[in-house]
């Protein structure tokens, strides 16, 4: 007997785990009730929450996306200067994201959410193609999404033509 696949189960399980982490590990050295009862202005509370949840999410998201883009740009044959810049930015984002984890377990949900979103986004990318637009002397890459079947067929035809031309 085969088990039935229920759509959205993975998303629900991941969101539930993140909510449990947020519920059991509030940001800072206090409980959620004490955080909500505090007389501080709302913008300060929101800034505090952004420091603990949003900053690690943005940094971890950025690090994964930049390092994946670096890999795909190198497959396009990008020059070393452009690759080095993307590598440095991705590495700095990763190390800074790790640095936010010293706040304690409260930063883990934001960090893991950023990683999950980045890996999900990058799994939908089929390839990067150079465009005609230039940025700092480099061609700006254009994303080919997995849902763009016309562009994918065009890339596959070009690769097949190159393989027959080179005798592979």
Describe it.
The protein has two domains: 42-123, no CATH class; 125-168, no CATH class. It is elongated. A hairpin with a 2-residue loop joins strand 1 (125-135) and strand 2 (138-145). It is built from six helices and two strands, in the order H-H-H-H-H-E-E-H. Helix 1 runs antiparallel to helix 5 (108-123) and helix 3 (42-76) runs antiparallel to helix 4. The mean pLDDT is 85. The protein is mostly helical.
The count of helical stretches stands at 6
**First-to-last CA distance:** 44 Å
Mean pLDDT: 85
Which spans have pLDDT < 50 for at least 5 consecutive residues? none
Strand order of the largest sheet: 1-2
Radius of gyration: 21 Å
Could you describe the largest sheet, including whether it forms a barrel?
2 strands, antiparallel
Number of domains: 2
Structural class determined from secondary elements: mainly alpha
Q: Which strand-content bin applies to the residues? A: 5-15%
Q: Label the overall shape.
A: elongated
Helix content: 55-70%
Order of helices and strands: HHHHHEEH
> Number of DSSP strands?
2
């Amino acid at each position: 007997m085969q088990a039935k696949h229920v759509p959205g189960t993975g998303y629900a399980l991941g969101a539930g785990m993140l909510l449990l982490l947020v519920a059991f590990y509030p940001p800072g050295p206090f409980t959620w009730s004490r955080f909500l009862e505090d007389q501080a202005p709302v913008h300060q509370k929101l800034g505090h929450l952004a420091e603990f949840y949003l900053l690690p999410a943005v940094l971890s998201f950025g690090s994964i996306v930049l390092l994946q883009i670096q890999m795909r740009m190198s497959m396009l044959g990008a020059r070393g200067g452009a690759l080095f810049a993307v590598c440095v930015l991705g590495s700095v984002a990763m190390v800074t994201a790790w640095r936010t984890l010293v706040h304690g377990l409260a930063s883990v949900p934001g960090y893991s959410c950023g990683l999950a979103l980045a890996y999900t986004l990058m799994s939908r990318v089929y390839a990067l193609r150079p465009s005609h637009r230039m940025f700092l002397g480099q061609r700006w890459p254009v994303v080919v999404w997995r849902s763009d079947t016309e562009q994918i067929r065009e890339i596959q035809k070009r690769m097949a033509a190159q393989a027959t031309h080179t005798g592979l």
